[in-house]
Design brief:
Blueprint lengths: L4 H31 L3 H27 L12 H30 L10 H28 L2 H28 L5 H28 L6 H12 L4 E12 L2 E10 L5 H18 L3 E9 L17 H15 L7 E6 L4 E8 H7 L6 H15 L6 E9 L3
Parallel strand pairs: 2-3, 5-6
Antiparallel strand pairs: 1-2, 4-5
Helix pairs in contact: 1-2, 1-4, 2-3, 2-5, 2-6, 3-6, 4-5, 5-6, 7-8, 9-11
Length: about 400
Amino acid sequence: MHRDSAQQKAVHQVTLIGAVLDGLLGFSKIIIGHLSHSAGLVADGIHSISDLFTDLVVLIILKFSGEEPDKEHPWGHAHFETLGTVLLGSILIAIAGAMIYDSSLALLNTSTLPVPEWPTLVVAAISVAAKEWIYRFTLKVGKETRSDLLIANAWHSRTDALSSIVVFIGIAGTMAGIAWLDAIAAIIVAGFVAKIGWDLCWNSIKQLVGTSLPEEDIARYQSIVMSIEGILSVHSFKSRAMGSKSILELHIQVAQDISASEGHHLGDLACYELKQQCDDIGHIIYHIDTYDDEEMDTAPSYKLPLRNEICSVIDSACNEVSNQLQPYKVTLHYQPKHIDIEILFLEKDMHRLQGPGVNSDQLIELIKTKLAHQFPDKKYFGSIYLATGIIK
């Protein structure tokens, strides 16, 4: 779940550059806007100062979210990033509300509104170019490191660039004689701020409450799992996001007659392929099934007899044939409502028991007859397969 040192360094570098730029632009807009009589530019400056604050929040949150899992946070610290994004969005919504309130009061008395001066146009134009550049730079690093918080911060910079365009138009219109246009521009800028704040909050809240990943992502993951030879189906598929990574939980169905180790190998192979082909995946929890328990009409019976009980019955049946005959290997295949049994005898043991008129096939049939009478509750048992073999 954590980023490597090179990624962390890139994230911190781009955020620091953005913070310096936001600080310079923010204070410049506020000072020039105040001295040159532009409420829109002042509002845009507040927007940039909010960017500076959010840059600092991003740096703090990313430091914690990039740490390794520990005893108190076994899943990692990625939700610190999500919480930071909610905090960032909430602050932006509050700032937008204050900006709309102040600009609405100014609109009530447009006759006293001063006309902005030419320096405000220059600052607004510089802001457009600078914020567009930092947007592209931050978005590039955010995608490379798969940081939702950094990508959100990039789009925050893009809204600042757009808002500066609106401010530029508002200032130019006011200078041309439309007195109320600058205040309208300030309200529009506030709308940009509120929109990005809401989007940040909503997307992060969906992540915190465990909302599933998009259907197209889930379909891609399932397709990768199903490409593994030996996997019959994948079901009970659950997913959620945690910071920049995805958490998956799934049931993998394999043939009921393979060994537990082979089923486990197929599950490990599916996890390997998922992580190789999808670098957004953090943790995978999988369960191996020999049947599709998702489609069962009733819950499986957990009262089926266990190995010790079954083997004692098999041993008793063998002893009735000969006290020298014991099965070499017993394999149990548990189904929802019954058990299929495979019993393997050593060929050398069978050969030792053979006599005049008695061969291994007859011994097998005799054991089958004894087993049919030994099992106390036949409804639990499906097929019983007996065989002999040479073990090297």
